[in-house]
Amino acid sequence: MKRIFFTTIIFLFFVNAFSFDWSIFNSKLTADEKTKLEAGDLIIRNVDTKKHMCTTSVTSKPVGRIWTGVNKLNPNYTVEVIRILQDNSERKTDVVDQLNNCLLNLNDYAGIPYWSVHSQRYYDLYKKVTEKSKIIQDTSTKILAEYIMEPFGTFDCDILLDYNRQEQNIFYDCVNIPTLRYKDQFNCIKPGKMHIYISAFKHDGYTVLYAVGAVDAPSIFFLRNRVETSFINRINTFCSYMFNKFS
Predict the structure, then answer these.
(1) pTM for the whole structure
(2) Which of 14, 96, 145, 210 is least enclosed, having the fewest CB within 10 Å?
(3) All domains of the chain, ordered by start, with CATH?
């Protein structure tokens, strides 16, 4: 009788420990990916196009805004970065609030380690990121920032961060302003065609961190591999760096 009792207790413990409502994701999210997310791991999904994304426009308000942007851009290079963290009252700062602070701290962007597949070594993702202007209105912060990112040189980006404290969610969008050039030799990405979308929202006693990197660039054979490794991997690196700050 005691053995049955303790077996039941252990079973209920594990059921509660990994109880998450997966209805916010669609069938594109695999069982293996769910297992990794349940363990608190970060997953990266190189999905190429939006039709393979594992969310929908009704997943949450900030994810709905991501879908609005993705549908407008219709990218041919797409990546999803996801992490799910169980809410913990012992945390001094809530995950959503902490992510907001991290995304607004542009000085922290410089020096993020980036692994170059081409060179097989680490570089700084951004050599420097400088805030040129900032406008704060209600829940929105708009920043004009200057990035130095080799081998693409110096360029400006518009950053929009909406942090709804009442609903405890975040929507972040960083988009390039000028045309991006590779080593000043040829054009890679036109203005407004590279977006980093980041969201955070509460669901079922968890904080869901969900990011999408979306690039609309020429799908030319000699450019495709370069764009995928140079831009998509950099977006992966940035989002993973932000999401892995939490334990």
Answers:
(1) 0.90
(2) 14
(3) 21-243 (3.30.530.20)
